[in-house]
Design goal:
The structure holds two protein chains of two kinds. By secondary structure, chain A is mainly β. Helices cover about 0% and strands about 55% of the residues of chain A. By secondary structure, chain B is mostly beta strands. Chain B starts with a strand and ends with a strand. The chains are: A mainly beta, B mainly beta.
């Protein structure tokens, strides 16, 4: 158990819809990272938040957005969903602002877009 | 986005065998990390390497930071069934504030008991 909690574990929705994925980081960790994992693209970094503020941005689509709340939990919002958005979405956390590479991952949220 | 070349893509071995996998990059990194992902779980950090030439062990796992700083290797000795999973390498250049991890596509390991 990494201490990072993600909900929901599984989500099935239709194209054009919007979903919200939630992440609670490990106790004491201030940084939250979002990753997308698909078979052909591997782990793709989407975005990092540190203590409520955006810290680094990766390959995040404009249809996707994220935020980190004062209690440090984070949400990833995916809108106007397309079939290609079907993937595993991971949240990871770490204590530091700067990415040391030592991340603690949650179990992921599997999104299926039909 | 940028990715690392990780090989082999998959391995199927007998319990007790040793395993070797590697990761190469066209860019220099000053940090290499190896993660393992069990089925239905998120990746878990196995070993972190911070210096060219460094050799670090974690139980039956040994990883090396290549001296060219463009590659890394992971060895597993005397494999057991619970070694099954996907092994990912990740590289990082910790210069300045841009510290994004670059990931390999993984090596899938199956162990026949």
């Amino acid at each position: 158990d990494s201490g990072v909690t993600q909900t929901p574990k599984h989500l099935i929705t239709a194209t054009g819809q919007r979903v919200t994925l939630r992440c609670s980081p490990r106790s004491g960790d201030l940084s939250v990272y979002w990753y997308q994992q698909s078979l052909d693209q591997g782990l793709q970094f989407l975005i990092q938040y540190y203590n409520g503020e955006e810290r680094a941005k990766g390959n995040i689509l404009e249809r996707f957005s994220a935020q980190q709340f004062p209690d440090l939990h984070s949400e990833l919002n995916l809108s106007s969903l397309e079939l290609g958005d079907s993937a595993l979405y991971f949240c990871a956390s770490s204590v530091a602002s700067l990415n040391t590479g030592e991340l603690f991952f949650g179990e992921g949220s599997r999104l299926t877009v039909l | 986005g940028q990715q690392l070349n990780q090989s082999p893509q998959s391995m199927f071995i007998q319990e007790g065998e040793d395993v070797s996998m590697n990761c190469t990059s066209s860019s220099i990194f000053n940090t290499w990390l190896w993660y393992k992902q069990d089925p239905g779980e998120g990746p878990v950090l196995l070993i972190a390497l911070y210096k060219a030439g460094e050799l670090t062990s974690n139980g039956r796992l040994t990883a090396q930071f290549g001296i060219t700083r463009k590659d890394s290797f992971l060895n597993i000795s005397a494999s057991i069934p619970s070694d099954v999973g996907i092994y990912f390498c990740a590289g990082q250049n910790r210069a300045g504030n841009n510290r994004k991890l670059i990931w390999g596509l993984g090596t899938s390991l199956a162990v026949n008991p």
